């Protein structure tokens, strides 16, 4: 067997996904590449093999009989590679090493302030926290647990809904000199911070405000950065409750309205079923659910806006003046980990 003549592995993965899903676009989504990349890899594979794998009719594709037969063999070979990889990792991975992944926003504003308590409880474990906005492939990536937002439709995995979320507006208590917005007109005159995929329009409708979707100003890709921008006084943010409660409790943010709108995604605890049975993952799951229970007891807390005294206002403005120049400079505030200390 001459292994030097094997096709490119990335092209084979692209072909297998496209054949299984019968769609270049869906294969691109699954593999986190562009539609063009899938099309290019499959065309190059066809040229290398000298065989047409997909019949193309405009934007529609259909797999050929030769392609279907080849896909069956390639899928079995890739499964063998995946199983061999899992066995190797299971044999070399230390039971003491726990690898977690989650979104950057949830990591920075919810998990990181609390994870020290887990490490104190389990000093025998080596914890690695990875941050990514993309879904991971448990068969390819060396990860134990993913904490994700979504619809929970990830077949073949242990999927456990752990938290829902809502949106509401919040800002720094010293934003606009302490004159915080309440009415539609006051919101219209305010600087409304924006986050990709999290529009203001649903909240405006729920609040009864006839206001257009903001189209100007800073657009943040990450919700954690959006919250930090509001904390340093750059404007009013439509924040997620899961990310903002700690800052509200610490008086870094003020919730501006009792009205909230539901988030269409929920948080999930996700891992392979076999990994769920390991001691390290069971230990983390137990601790994580305890922290969520403590969070449930305070997540509805909201500090209503109050008019600060002139002296307090001047002190807060001075403390945040440097922060308005950039997101790295946060107000000088009492130490707080964003979570209830009595939990």
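Sequence proposed for the structure above (343 residues):
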């Amino acid at each position: 067997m001459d292994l030097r003549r094997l096709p490119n592995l990335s092209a084979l993965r692209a072909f297998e996904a496209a054949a299984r899903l019968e769609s270049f676009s869906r294969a691109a989504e699954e593999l986190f590449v562009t539609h063009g990349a899938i099309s290019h890899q499959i065309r190059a594979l066809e040229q290398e093999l000298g065989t047409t794998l997909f019949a193309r009719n405009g934007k529609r594709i259909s797999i050929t009989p030769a392609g279907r037969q080849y896909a069956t063999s390639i899928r079995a070979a890739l499964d063998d590679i995946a199983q061999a990889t899992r066995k190797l990792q299971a044999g070399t991975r230390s039971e003491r090493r726990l690898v977690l992944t989650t979104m950057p926003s949830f990591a920075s504003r919810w998990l990181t302030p609390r994870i020290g308590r887990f490490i104190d409880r389990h000093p025998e474990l080596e914890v690695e926290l990875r941050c990514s906005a993309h879904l991971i492939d448990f068969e390819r990536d060396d990860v134990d647990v993913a904490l994700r937002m979504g619809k929970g439709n990830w077949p073949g995995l242990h999927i456990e809904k752990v938290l829902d979320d809502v949106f509401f507006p919040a800002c720094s208590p010293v934003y606009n000199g302490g004159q915080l917005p309440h009415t539609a007109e006051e919101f219209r005159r305010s600087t409304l911070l924006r986050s990709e995929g999290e529009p203001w329009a649903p909240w405006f409708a729920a609040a009864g405000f006839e206001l257009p979707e903001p189209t100007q100003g800073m657009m943040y890709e990450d919700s954690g950065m959006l919250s930090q921008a509001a904390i340093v006084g750059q404007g009013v943010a439509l924040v997620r409750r899961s990310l903002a409660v700690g800052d509200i409790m610490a008086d870094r943010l003020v919730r501006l309205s009792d009205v909230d709108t539901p988030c269409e995604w929920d948080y999930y605890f996700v891992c392979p079923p076999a990994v769920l049975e390991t001691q390290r993952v069971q230990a983390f799951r137990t601790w994580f659910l305890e922290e969520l229970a403590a969070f449930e007891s305070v997540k509805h807390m909201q500090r209503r806006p109050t008019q600060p005294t002139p002296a307090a206002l001047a002190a807060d403005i001075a403390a945040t003046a440097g922060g308005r120049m950039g997101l790295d400079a946060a107000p000088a505030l009492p130490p707080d980990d964003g979570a209830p200390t009595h939990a």
